Amino acid sequence: MDAATVDRSHQREFPAWFRTRIQELRVTNPSDITDDIYALACGPDPWVSSFSACISNGTRFDTESRGKHRRTQNSGVVVKGEHQSKAVDFYGVLIDILQLKYMGWRHLFLFRCEWFDVGDARRGIHVGDHITSVNTSRKWYKDEPFVLACQAAQVFYLQDNSKHGNWSVVQRVTSRNTYDVPIIPSEHGDEDDDQNLNYAAFQENEPSYAVLEPEEDDNGISSPLHRTDVSPIDVPGDTVLGDAIPTPGDDDFIDDELDENDDYESSSSEDLVTDTGTSSDDDFFFFKLRYLSRK
After folding, report:
1. Whole-angstrom Cα distance, residue 143 to residue 148?
2. Is the model's pLDDT at 75 over the cut of 80?
3. Which of 40, 154, 169, 291 is the most exposed place for a label (fewest CB within 10 A)?
4. How far is Cα 209 from Cα 276, in angstroms, rounded to an integer?
5. What letter would DSSP give residue 222?
6. Please, which residues bridge with residue 110 across strands?
7. At how many degrees (to 10) do helices 35-42 and 3-28 cross?
8. Cα(93)–Cα(54) distance, integer angstroms
9. Is the pLDDT of residue 92 over 90?
10. Is the pLDDT reported for residue 175 higher than 90?
11. Can you tell me the distance from the alpha carbon of 295 to that of 155, in angstroms, rounded to the nearest whole number?
12. Nearest CA to 94 among 80, 108, 73?
């Protein structure tokens, strides 16, 4: 039995075997089976949700159909995998985004993609020193279009003018506001990775900024604060401050100090009489406010 037959048999029979095995262990040794493993073994709901865009690992992905009428391109994907026991970068385009739901409100997202034929080094992909080109007209792995959303990285495809046909240059990018910070290895073996938080943050050995020395004249004074080419002018202090400080006689002056002779408790309806001798509606309204404020 060759390797391809074993893989097909494994894909066809493993889900049923895994579900039966986990259900048996759930009965005999319930403490050994977590809720996540049990929900995974039982399989997803038969109903799935489809989306045309999503954000995964801080990167926005759009399906190919959504990006056809847009100036931006967010449908290119690359996934690291294996082909015949060799590491391969699978390049493709995003066709659909599916959400699978499991028991206990668990869910995950799958990308359905079309993969380009990167297995053919002559007609499918050309790898140079600095440029990688793929033939977008040749497809590969049509029976395995799904990958986890967290496994996919984003790439852009630019037309390769140096070749005839449907060849595109692969442009890898780094998402904005994301940084590849190196991980400091732990000195305590295989202990919890959370202990790495106790170590000092990563810092370069050499600074990446330049220090500018100030320029000095013959007298040793750097950046003098007075001019020697003009005569000084004396400005009286009251000329500047006198115009800046408002006085009580000004129309724009607002006095927030309360007069001790003001008696708000003696306000009555008789004080709110207009020139005609009758109380207006506005005056009555303010009187009510004063009356209520005393309560």
Report:
1. 16
2. yes
3. 291
4. 79
5. B
6. 98, 148
7. 130
8. 14
9. yes
10. no
11. 71
12. 73
7: left (phi over 0), alpha (psi -120 to 50) or beta: alpha
> In the numeric block, which tokens belong to residue 163?
């070749």
pLDDT at 86 over 80: yes
DSSP 8-state symbol, 143: T
The neighbouring-strand residues paired with 53 are 62
Architecture in CATH of 44-172? Roll (2.30)
Q: What are the structure tokens assigned to 122, written together?
A: 């002559």
List of residues 6+ apart from 58 with CB closer than 8 A:
175, 177, 178
Confidence of residue 267 (pLDDT cuts 50, 70, 90): very low
pLDDT (mean) for 79-100: 90
Torsion on CA atoms 226, 230, 232, 235, rounded to nearest 10: -100
Cα–Cα distance, 146 to 136 (Å, whole number): 18
Burial label, 29 (beta-carbon count in 10 A; 0-12, 13-18, 19+): exposed
Burial class (CB in 10 A: 0-12, 13-18, 19+), 95: middle
Instruction: Please answer whether residues 140 and 124 qualify as being in contact, where contact means their C-beta atoms are separated by less than 8 angstroms.
Output: yes
Q: Do residues 34 and 47 make contact, with C-beta atoms less than 8 angstroms apart? A: no
